[in-house]
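Q: Here's a chain of 250 amino acids. Please give me its 3D structure as tokens.
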Amino acid sequence: MARTGINLGNSQFQVGARLKKSALVLALCLAFAATSADAATKKPTPTPTAKASVKASPKATAKPTTKPKPTAKATATPKATVTTSTTTAKPTVSAKPKPKPKPKPKPRKKIRLTPSPKPKWPPVDFEFESGIYAKVPTSKELVSVISAKTNLASQVKACSEFVCGAVQVAAETGCVWWEVNSQVLSKEGVILGDLRTISTPSAVKEIKTILLISPEPIETLEYISNIEVICHQDPRPEGASAATYTKVVE
């Protein structure tokens, strides 16, 4: 079975009250116009024209003469001409009110998301051996990681009751599965039990945080130490438990 391990020796991660406070913080953590026409009618102006003339020329002679014949000319009165001009009034048309223009929505500002920076490689302050990197994080570093990862936030609740630890691991080639062996110690340094934790795969150069949760109840200042990290390249054994705790018999 292909495996590579690294031992962190006596690196200590005292949880107890520290992780208990962290768990509580995390637990308490949308918008007219009209037209008209004028009608004008001119009154008819009749222009009658009439002319009449009569001429009579009597002449006297010694000779008997016949009576003069009167000559008369008469001009008949012409007919009056009447001109009528009528303009038809145009009907009034009511124009429909123009709809008010809807206000244009203001353009939304584009939000540019800045991608998270890639972790430095090789990771700083990690112990190294044969392509494997490991580190016990401080309480501040652990709280920062847990806040960004939902799965860890749900797991850390157990650390308000039980003794817990944590380790950060990475591998240049990635791992099929991780195995972490550790020990639970009392405040006096007495070994209370052995803890074996199995975790999921990690990608190439991915920094992974693994919580070490024991069934040992918190009483005073118990902690987890003597951490050994193993990177496996073979398939994970079927039925292997995520955590195995073996209590030391007094």
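Q: Can you summarize the key feature?
A: The mean pLDDT is 73.
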